[in-house]
Amino acid sequence: xxxxxxxxxxxxxxxxxxxxxxxxxxxxxxxxxxxxxxxxxxxxxxxxxxxxxxxxxxxxxxxxxxxxxxxxxxxxxxxxxxxxxxxxxxxxxxxxxxxxxxxxxxxxxxxxxxxxxxxxxxxxxxxxxxxxxxxxxxxxxxxxxxxxxxxxxxxxxxxxxxxxxxxxxxxxxxxxxxxxx
Length: 181
Prior knowledge:
This protein is mainly β. 10% of the residues lie in helices and 57% in strands. The two termini are 40 Å apart.
């Protein structure tokens, strides 16, 4: 019994150091989801070097009011389209990869609802400082969390309802990524 336990422990140690070990990340391409809990963005990540990655971000949210429009109003379906780029510097520590970076996201948003006068879609540019970490469960799969400090510049507004051109907010997002190579 003792021999079996030693063999099992040796196999487990061998597998954990080989299966879970990280090789160089340069040239590695991954696809993932940011903000798993609400309206997710699809994120494509490419490691230019072992420490620096570029991200292409895209997302869409759709909203459809359920009932017919009351008389004298127009039913308007809602959408939120997002496209962006990001750059991250990774501080690689074994299976944990903390990172610091910047993101820029352009968004077009149309609120759903019933309107007597149809509003125009709103355009915005969001610039964000990003602090996060990915934990590699396997060599090709990671789970993570990231915190953003966003500066949201409104390019079109409904005046006099909205009186500001810039909003500042923070977001916390849970992430999941799969890497192909």
